[in-house]
Amino acid sequence: MTAIGARPDLRPVWLSFGAAILWGLWWLPIRALEEAGLPGVWAGIAMNLAALPLIACTLALPPRPAAVSANAFIGAIGIGLAITLYGTAVTETTVIRAVLLFYLAPAWSILIECVFFGRRFRLINAAGLAMAALGVLLIFGGRIELSGWSLGDSMALASGAFWAAGAAMIFTSPEISARRLSLVTCTTAALIGLLIGLTIAPSTPEALTLHGASLALGSGAVYLAPIVLATLWSARRLAPALLSFILTAEIVSGVGSSALLLDEPFGWAEALGSTLIAGAALIELLLPRTTQPA
Question: 54: which residues sit within 8 A by CB, 6+ positions away?
Answer without folding.
Answer: 220, 221, 225
